[in-house]
């Protein structure tokens, strides 16, 4: 019996074989890399809720950058990010770095004022001095350096230090680029941090849902990679159920694929796959999003449940028993967290698939 290998990849950060609907974003960055220093696409921040494909997009951009001769180094915002950047650069760019200038890391001091590297027999050096040396070496080979940072947040001193230093690379016309991704609220907080106001001039790109035609093409082509096919009606059901959400595309495709080992995926396979995918979506994405909310955030969202689709802010405030300005404060919080989206003047809607249904179900259980 033929054993078909599942081509779908519902794993965080794992680039799927066919990436849906992000080619224009990738192409914009790549064009910026191919252009001279100063191109605004070289400093881009992607923002979106959990499961919107931020990490996958960073991976895809790094892959394309390496194809045109760039060195890419990656990390998440943390207390170790400066060290990790240096270690990755030494490994990934080793053919371009003169061995006699490379040195063994013997000590690290990170104290809120920056990175210091202690070299055997030498004085401590700042992270900027360290990177200046490496950028000089890369420049001799006409190689650019791409930094990618996932889970971007101003909550780490090393992040502030990195951004503060990176702006000097830009002023000096170094051949560098910075692509970041983060949750909406974290990105807003970075823009509001006066210590790194330089970031306010970065391109900010929101990861919107994938269009249904692109979802359809992605699922169909991915299934065909394993020499299988999917019935038209089954494909219609799968596409509609994803709501254009990148993680759901992979989840539904993965579980529908696993329902049988027959050549053709049926609507019965897709229905069972959707059920499994919804359970995973709730445990892997939605529960974490709920845990980030305050009690008043939850009250605001519960006040929206009786509306079929859009909710009027005036009605939400009335149901909560609060003033319109008080309700507007929590609307901004929820929009910044990617839970809600504005839907015209004075209106909001749930933006995360399944979130409203999960909230309604849990609310009924608590009553």
How many domains in all? 3
User: Cα-atom Rg, whole angstroms?
Assistant: 23 Å
Mean pLDDT over the full residue set: 89
Strand tally is 13
Order of helices and strands: HEHEHEEEHEHEHEHEHHEHHEHHEEH
CATH topology of the largest domain: Rossmann fold
Strand content bin: 5-15%
Top-tier CATH class of the largest domain:
Alpha Beta
Distance between the termini: 51 Å
Q: Which outline best applies? A: globular
| Named CATH architecture of the largest domain | 3-Layer(aba) Sandwich
Brief synopsis:
By secondary structure, this protein is α/β, with parallel strands linked by helices.
Task: Give your account of this protein's structure.
- The chain is α/β, with parallel strands linked by helices.
- It folds into 3 domains: 23-96 and 132-206, 3-Layer(aba) Sandwich (Rossmann fold); 212-290, Helicase, Ruva Protein, domain 3; 293-366, Winged helix-like DNA-binding domain superfamily/Winged helix DNA-binding domain (Arc Repressor Mutant, subunit A, Orthogonal Bundle), CATH 1.10.10.
- The protein is 49% helix and 14% strand.
- The protein has 14 helices and 13 strands.
- It has helices at 23-34, 54-67, 81-92, 127-140, 157-171, 184-191, 212-225, 232-242, 246-257, 267-291, 295-302, 313-320, 324-336, 355-366, and strands spanning 43-47, 71-76, 107-110, 115-118, 125-126, 145-150, 176-182, 203-206, 229-230, 264-265, 311-312, 340-342, 347-350.
- The strands form 4 sheets. The protein has a 5-stranded parallel β-sheet, with helices on both faces. Strands 3-4-5 form a 3-stranded antiparallel β-sheet.
- Helix 7 (212-225) runs parallel beside helix 9 (246-257) and helix 8 runs parallel beside helix 10.
- The longest helix has 25 residues, at 267-291.
- The radius of gyration is 23 Å and the shape is globular.
- The chain starts with 22 loop residues before the first helix and ends with a helix.
- The model is unreliable at 100-115 (pLDDT under 50).
């Amino acid at each position: 019996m033929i054993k078909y290998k599942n081509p779908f990849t519902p794993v965080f950060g794992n680039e799927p074989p066919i990436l849906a609907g992000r080619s224009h974003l990738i192409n914009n960055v790549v064009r910026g890399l191919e252009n001279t220093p100063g191109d605004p696409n070289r400093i881009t921040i992607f923002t979106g809720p959990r499961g919107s494909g931020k990490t996958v997009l960073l991976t895809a951009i790094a892959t394309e950058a390496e194809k045109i001769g760039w060195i890419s180094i990656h990390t998440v915002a943390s207390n170790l990010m400066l060290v990790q950047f240096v270690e990755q650069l030494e490994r990934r760019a080793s053919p371009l770095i003169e061995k006699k200038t490379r040195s063994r890391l013997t000590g690290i001091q990170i104290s809120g004022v920056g990175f210091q590297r202690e070299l055997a027999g030498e004085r401590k050096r700042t992270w900027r001095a360290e990177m200046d040396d490496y950028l000089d070496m890369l420049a001799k080979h006409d190689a650019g350096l791409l930094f990618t940072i996932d889970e971007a947040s101003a909550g780490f001193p090393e992040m502030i230090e990195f951004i503060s230093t990176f702006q000097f690379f830009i002023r000096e016309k170094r051949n560098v680029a910075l692509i970041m991704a983060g949750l909406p609220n974290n990105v807003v907080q970075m823009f509001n941090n006066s210590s790194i106001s330089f970031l306010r001039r970065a391109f900010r790109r929101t990861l919107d849902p994938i269009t249904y035609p692109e979802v359809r093409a992605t699922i169909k082509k991915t299934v065909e990679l394993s020499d299988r096919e999917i019935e038209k009606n089954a494909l219609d059901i799968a596409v509609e159920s994803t709501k254009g959400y990148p993680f759901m595309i992979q989840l539904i495709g993965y579980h529908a694929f696993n329902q049988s080992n027959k050549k053709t995926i049926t609507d019965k396979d897709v229905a069972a796959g959707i059920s499994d995918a919804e359970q995973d979506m709730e445990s892997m994405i939605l529960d974490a999003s709920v845990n980030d909310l305050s009690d008043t955030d939850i009250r605001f969202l519960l006040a929206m449940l009786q509306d079929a689709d859009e909710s009027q802010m005036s009605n939400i405030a009335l149901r909560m028993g609060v003033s319109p300005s008080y309700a507007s404060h929590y609307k901004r919080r929820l929009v910044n967290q990617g839970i809600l989206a504005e839907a015209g003047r004075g209106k909001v809607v749930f933006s995360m698939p399944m979130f409203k249904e999960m909230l309604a179900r849990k609310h009924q259980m608590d009553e």
